[in-house]
Every structure is written in C-alpha cells, then in structure tokens.
Amino acid sequence: DAKTTQPNSMESNEEEPVHLPCNHSTISGTDYIHWYRQLPSQGPEYVIHGLTSNVNNRMASLAIAEDRKSSTLILHRATLRDAAVYYCILRDEDISAGNMLTFGGGTRLMVKP
Amino acid sequence: DAGVIQSPRHEVTEMGQEVTLRCKPISGHDYLFWYRQTMMRGLELLIYFNNNVPIDDSGMPEDRFSAKMPNASFSTLKIQPSEPRDSAVYFCASSPRLAGGLPRPFFGPGTRLTVL
Q1: What would the pLDDT profile of A62-86 be if each residue is shown by its tens digit?
Q2: DSSP code per residue over chain A
Q3: Which residue of B has its CA nearest to A30?
Q4: Section A37-44 average pLDDT
C-alpha cells in the first residue's frame, strides 16, 4: 500500500470544527482513502472512506483533493469523546490484490473543554 | 449485537509460559483478523482467516505464534513459549464479506498481555 503522512498530534477546542490532514502523494488510481480512529483503551473503529468525491456520514466528512494527493477528515463539532488517534490508510480495493488494512502512526487528537 | 468478544481482557504471565488468547467474532462475519499493537511498532496484522481458513500469516512473528479457527464462531491465538517482547495489546477483528470490496473490520476491545 502507498504511504500516508499525518501530523503526530493536533489540538482542538470542544464544539469547534477539526480538520485532520493526510498526505498521500504516491496514491495510485485504485487506492481508496480510509479513516479509522482508536479511542483510548479500545480497538480501532471505521470512520469513513472515499475514492475521488467528497464523502459525508454521520461521524465525519472526507474532503479529497482534486489530484488525490491529500485528503482531510473533518469533524464538524469536536466533542470530548472525539479525542482519539486518527489513522489515514490507503488501500487498493482490487480484491485480487488481497490487501488488508495497514495502520501507520496516525494523528493523536486532543480536545480541550 | 455484542460485537467482537475477546478473552481474557488482561493477561499477566511469566516468560516461558504458554498463553492462549480467545476471540468470538460477530455472527455472520466471514473474515477474522488478529492484530498486535505496541508503542514501538504500532498496529500490525498478524494473520487473517476467510471462512475459517488461514489466508495470510506472513505477519506472524515467529514459530512461537500460532492461530486457529476451528469454527465460524471461535478463534485462538497461542504463544508458546512466551517472551517479554510479546507484551502488547492483541486485537481480534471480524468483517462481513462486502459486495465488490475488501473486508472492513470491526475490532474487539483487545487483550493486554504482559509477559514478565
């Protein structure tokens, strides 16, 4: 899988929007962009994924650059429960490739009350 | 749905002892994964199964580690003999077969293993 680069940590204030960046300059045309997060003392959980178009779900929004070399996970109103490590992962969705999720270092998001 | 169930949640053992970690996947899920998380190496995929059959065990660190899935509702990860460097949090995850795509795992709460 192509590599991703994320800041080690970010801080946010409660009830403010948070923009978590991810750079993936070597992304290939069949790589999907996945975001997972890991709350303290829990296993990772799926947040969102996309290919080219921006995506929204109940947890977050994913904004993908036109050249696909970067993306941003947007939490519209951060809560204290959103404090977690956020992982940006690229994965080739070609099932014959047999690619499973490979986690990098992620961004530790701290939310201040 | 209870989610993925792992036991025990915490295990403390002495070097050289056998350790068995257990996992019950979400009912109906076709894929099962074992991951290990340490501060030094982050989250690593150890092995995964599809329909109870091991597909890729290239992440298993060495012969001391073995994993089995005797049926669709149970899997074990065994370390024999255990060493202090095996101390980590071990996660089990399961996933349904997604139409047209690769599995998207649901993770369990993990087992924190400490080998003294």
Answers
A1: 999 999 999 999 999 999 999 999 9
A2: ----B--SEEEEETTS-EEEEEE-TT--TTEEEEEEEE-TTS--EEEEEESSS-EE-SS-EEEE-TTSSEEEEEESS--GGG-EEEEEEEEE--GGG---------EEEEEE-
A3: B101
A4: 94
Interface touch B107/A44, C-beta < 8 Å? yes
Pairs of residues, one from chain A and one from chain B, whose beta carbons lie less than 8 Å apart: 43
pLDDT of residue A95: 59
Q: What does the alpha-carbon distance between residue A76 and residue A82 come to, in Å, rounded to a whole number?
A: 11
B:42-81 residues touching chain A, CB 8 A cutoff? 42-45, 48, 55-56
With CA atoms as reference, the chain B residue closest to A40 would be B109
CA separation for the pair A60, A107 (Å, rounded): 16
Contact A86, A111 (CB under 8 A): no
